[in-house]
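Dock protoporphyrin IX containing FE; give full complex structure.
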Amino acid sequence: MKVEPVNSDDNPKKVANSLGWTIPSVMKLLKEGNLYFKTIQEKTGHTIFRINLGVEAFALCDSQSATAVFDYSKVTKDDGFGRLKFNKNLTGQIRPSIFCNGEVHERYRKFLMDVFRATSVDYLIKVTNEAVEKHFSLWEKSYTGAGIAKEWEMDILRLCSDIVHRAILGGEISSEASHNWLMGILKKKRSALGVKTKFFSKAIVGYAILTNGIKESPHYQSMIKLADKRSVSEEEALNNILFSILFNYYGGCSAAFRTCAARISILDENIKSELIEDIKSAIDKYGGLTGQALCQMRKLHSFVLENLRMSSPVNLIFGRAVEDLMIKSNTGTYKIPKGKLMVANLFWAHRDTRVFDDPLTFQALRFFNNPDLKNYLYWEAGPFSKDQCEKTHQCPGRNIAIPSIMLFSAYLLLQGDYQLGSEPQWTGKKIRRLGTPDEIITLKKFKYKSDVTVSLPEAVLNSKLKYDEMTAENNNSQCPVDSEA
Ligand code: HEM
């Protein structure tokens, strides 16, 4: 959706000011999360209003207005997300693609898109299958049901980390270092007393381990050749790869994995059987689990999209207006002055009653029954149905993200028999939980149904990362899942 430039004939509504004092506003945000945005909406009667998130921003809280931050000809990116700035010490002083603008952004983005295209869905299936076998066996030994429920999240993160590293680098790097780096990337180096924080101290050690791990990975030299073709230096390439693998891929998918695991545990038995049938019949049709089989799993695809609608790992997308803008919303048209920060709230855009029926209810087959709704799914910072291009910040990893989440969910549905410690709840209050349930997910018992075999055809078992076959001009290997589903 295009944002209208300001026209003197337009008669915009006054933007309600709900800024308040910074500390109480931030406290409310931390306590109420997305519900804080709803409270202001109800109080003011507008879906666009000014809010204090530690920085002042214009909040856009419905499906129509949220699209304003995706018009990348009219917004620019800052060095972080609102008041959370990224720590440059943990990216070799390089600003990663997500925070860049203009020519630099375009160079980095083209390079990253080249890198991600080397990962075929078949190869993703192969590495996921290996990781699942290893981790499900470990989980069965750890969660016997004998004692009290134990935290499950770190185990899911480790599984995700194994998949992510192998899917892009072709080898594993330390999941502990990844976790420590991630814990520090949006935090300051020093506390108010001038002392280095414990997060930073661990993260900087993690940074050294990770950059060495990437440099020693089997495909590093091929990646650097791709970078050279896009005029990206080795230092820029290394730090962009690091940031995209860990912050974007691992950060996003590990949250979606946890959410899907929790959803599956409380899924209606009939729907669960339908999903299992959907998976099995596609596998049978293609003589094993392949990329083509995965595209046939339309119901599983819908289940994953419904998770991304209700529990998007990223709730807030920021953008700064490069000119005065007129933005349309459910409650009228508003003027956002040049230079002002905007924040689209995806939690509410994905719950817009003008678009989604009964938006507060999880409906696993919502997108299967109504595929057009994909036009209003913005989890990747842009309409899901829109093709990727080099001039946007829309997630360039979606052709890896969706198959990754589908595969993890398929294996859990087929081979996991498990019981959580308590029923998961999603109130929307805890933005920092990245769409996962409010409380840490605990597990009582995990049974690995290894007798339910998932066969992988030779072509999948022999698949490899394709860096050496790629050139910057000729690399159009497309993930089939979204184009066909
Ligand atoms: C469920 C998983 C994922 C979610 C929810 C997600 C979400 C997003 C969002 C919202 C943005 C834009 C952020 C902004 O503009 O503020 C983004 C950008 C990005 N994502 Fe993803 N992503 C996911 C998976 C992935 C994967 C698997 C990869 C890589 C293989 C990836 C790589 C990137 C990169 C490199 C950017 C920056 C793009 C640019 O600025 O041009 N993401 N992602």
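Observed: Residues 4-484 form a domain with the Cytochrome p450 fold (CATH 1.10.630.10).
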